[in-house]
Amino acid sequence: MTSTATQSPIPMVGQEAPDFTLPSTSGEKITLSALRGTPVLMAFFPLAFSSTCTAELCEMRDDYDQFAGRGVTILPISVDSTYSLKEYKNKYDMKVNLLSDFKRDVSRRYGVLNEDRFFSNRAYFLIDRDGTIQWEHVEENPGLRREDTELLAAIDRLR
């Protein structure tokens, strides 16, 4: 008997963030609930090495000190393998580890998997210290992205 995974609705502001554990480019597995006590910005991105994703993650790299200064842990997540993500991280000298949702379970759990293209839509979830979603945004088109100024403003509203 074969079962197919079904996509959940997008979690809403005020809800507890669905927990997950994913492999990262550090070789360690990252569990969201283990980061309680620290604000977390989850940033789903469609595919490594694509132009919009590269612009987005390089801007986050360039503004890393602004995120770190606010005490925020950034979790970029894509459906790429950890091997591809390690190459991507190294090529662009990224300062954060990237998470691989290769089986697409987390993208489905957060309601952001584009089933037709089999990658996640670009989406952001800002989670407070208690594990509650405080801000979310899902792009209608994977070619669009939020600027860091908007992400940092959302983080500043957590305080």
How would you describe the overall organization of this protein?
The protein has 159 residues and is of the alpha/beta class. It has one domain: Glutaredoxin, CATH 3.40.30. The chain has helices at 51-62, 64-69, 82-91, 105-109, 148-156, and strands at residues 21-23, 29-31, 40-44, 73-78, 99-100, 113-114, 119-120, 123-127, 133-138. The chain has a five-stranded mixed beta sheet, with no helix packed on it. The chain has a two-stranded antiparallel ribbon with strand order 1-2. α3 (82-91) links the parallel β4 and β5. It is globular.
Please write out the topology.
Elements (H helix, E strand, L loop, with lengths): L20 E3 L5 E3 L8 E5 L6 H12 L1 H6 L3 E6 L3 H10 L7 E2 L4 H5 L3 E2 L4 E2 L2 E5 L5 E6 L9 H9 L3
Parallel strand pairs: 3-4, 4-5
Antiparallel strand pairs: 1-2, 3-8, 6-7, 8-9
